[in-house]
Amino acid sequence: MENTFEYKPLKIGDLTARIPIIQGGMGIGISLGNLAGTVAKEGGVGIISAAQIGYQEEDFDKDPLKANLRAIKTEYDIARTIAPEGVIGFNIMVAMRHYEKYVDAAIKAGADLIISGAGLPMDLPKIAGEREVKLAPIVSSEKSARVILRYWDKKYKRMPDLVVIEGPKAGGHLGFSVEEIEDFCNDCGKAATDRYANEVKKIMETVKSYSEKYDCNIPLVLAGGIDDREAVQNAFSLGVDGVQVATRFVTTKECDADIRYKESYIHAKKEDIVIVKSPVGMPGRAILNKFQKKVRSGEKIPHTPCHGCLHKCNPAEIPYCITDALIHAAKGEVDDALLFCGANAYKATRIETVKEVMEELFS
Question: CA-CA-CA-CA torsion for 243, 244, 248, 251, nearest 10 degrees?
Fold first, then answer.
């Protein structure tokens, strides 16, 4: 498909990314300092996932919070060393326990940007205060965008610096019900695409109304299933300012995950990409592997002592521990892992470099 678009840099307040792409945050341990730093060096926005970021620290089992807070600084410094002038941020889930402490640690480390989803980041402006950091909620619907913007307007008299619109083809935890995912994705054809495109336009109108009220620019970035140049062009044709891409960066040399995790994408077939239910009841998208087949059969997977990751998790009731399963993934222990992925993960055929991915998407 011939490129008919002239892409403009992504401007987030006084920050500028030469290429209008944000690398999506992927935890546990998939997007850390090396991947985020490389994306930022190549002109995009590199994002480190704060989810159990300290899993490699010696004291992680004894004091996961302390290990995670320390690792936030460590991984940011790695990214900043790679990209001294690049735009580097963190993805921090609202559903995480100690959410406020993680946001505070990321800002103190030097983060340019905090992207926050997996719940509504209603009080993110309060945590950030007057400090120099850009704030970006993730929304999946016009309703969630309206709720956040109205609350920030009334309580904090401020607007987001960026809004990420994450669609139903994204990987990991999804901001949709299973029924909505089926409605938007089942046929994966033009009708389903058009249905979500209409929702995107509604979100854009809501954001526009508040940007006019505050006389400011709130850039919009579209995420979910954006894996090739045509998908990038389709996103920009809707009028967004940038795209967020995650799955394509997993199968890069610079991705922080084990090579066996990357190869699980390359070996996956289309029918292997399934909707799963996380231990806390949220739907997500992952690769159907030996681990997931055990879970689907009703088997309860033994787990380590609680590492305090998510608010709604009761260790006595869960079928498996999501922290354990995602750490297995990052370490390449794929038969015992929850292999989160986007809808198009099966399209991966080889290990690339970050530079190659970005050039292909935007050349």
Answer: 140
